[in-house]
Amino acid sequence: MSDRMSRRKLFGLGAAGAAAVGAGAVATRALVEEPTVAHAASISDPVSFYGEHQAGIVTPAQDRLHFVSFDVTTDKRAELVELMQEWTAAAARLVQGKEAGTFGTVGGVPEAAPDDTGEALGLPASGLTLTIGFGPSLFDDRFGLAGKRPAALADLPKFPGEQLIPEISGGDICVQACAHDPQVAVHAIRNLARIGFGKVSVRWSQLGFGRTSSTSRAQATPRNLMGFKDGTNNLKLEDVELLRQQLWVGAQDGPAWMTGGSYMVTRKIRMMVETWDRTSLGEQEAIFGRDKGVGAPMGKKAEFDTPDFAAKGGDGLPLIKNDAHVRLAHPTTNGGARLLRRGYNFVDGSDGLGRLDAGLFFIAYQRDPRKQFVPVQMRLAKTDSLNEYIKHISSGLWACPPGMRDAGDYWGRALFA
């Protein structure tokens, strides 16, 4: 048993090197390619773990999500750093379709627990990406990080109408696992939680299906559970200059450890689907400001046509109403602010009253939430006619550091330096 543990600790403290020996060529290739356009050749192939930016942000959105928020339970900085190294080593293996540990499900000492839980044995990588973020609460006085908290990681304000549940909001660290196979995503999060036992505990988690946005022009726009196309004007990985302006933290933004990273906002938005399903088609389309079939803005014919907010209907009133979702969320009415969305639908059973507990798990990345998500959401929260049918019940804000350049790096290294 002691030999088993010593080998495992050596694996974790090897700065991910042992886990990624076979990924050296992948790491080298990722450094010379344009990091914003790298993607898997097919849905079963692996996505590169290395590059200027973390995978799972502009990566073409996969079909499934397992998102988890952790609270750090250790009060020792060295143990937290060691966990980041162990997690990175495991992640580098998992995204290649390998087992989390060097000994695997059936290797190692029979009397000890396996190094992998085993439910993904025989499954391909399925485009798995693992993206880490650090919450505001990590920057308290436990680990000496208060002076490194980014100004952009300011606590989100209270938005009108939100009904947040503290137990499923916030957290010290988050990991977003996206894959085309739900079992692969669940397997990855399960093994990170297993490795973190005694140092972190799961605060809350969320499963998602049916991506609700496209992050590449090669993808069709998907639909949310209200039946409307979602994220038509989303930032795309091909928009390199827009991504530089709107998504990636620049060197001038500070702090240095976040350069090349991005800020993630998560919101669990429950939809009152039974009420929505009894609403007339005309009212539904007026609320969104779009045709429900093709997704075109009111008065236009195609999904990607530019909305005409000055157009009037036969009654002399705005064709796209002043409280329509598309008007309130559009960049032209928000000082040009844009987000990169990669949210997911969810159905978490029923609420015991015969109503589906369903909706949207909203995920959005941006350069500075104070200038992007906060003003847009405040505008929506105050006047969006869609608010009658939705309820925000969970919220999270996370600083996602840049990607790892090679197998000698680990999650958060610059933060803990």
UniProtKB/TrEMBL annotation:
It catalyses: heme b + 2 H(+) = protoporphyrin IX + Fe(2+). Its cofactor is heme b. Keywords: Heme, Iron, Lyase, Metal-binding, Oxidoreductase, Peroxidase, Signal. Residues 54-209 form the Dyp-type peroxidase N-terminal domain. Pfam families: Dyp_perox_C, Dyp_perox_N. It is an enzyme of class 1 (oxidoreductase). Binds 1 heme b (iron(II)-protoporphyrin IX) group non-covalently per subunit. Residues 221-404 form the Dyp-type peroxidase C-terminal domain. Its EC number is 1.11.1.-. Belongs to the DyP-type peroxidase family. Involved in the recovery of exogenous heme iron. Extracts iron from heme while preserving the protoporphyrin ring intact. PANTHER family: DEFERROCHELATASE, DEFERROCHELATASE/PEROXIDASE. This is Deferrochelatase. It comes from Nonomuraea guangzhouensis.
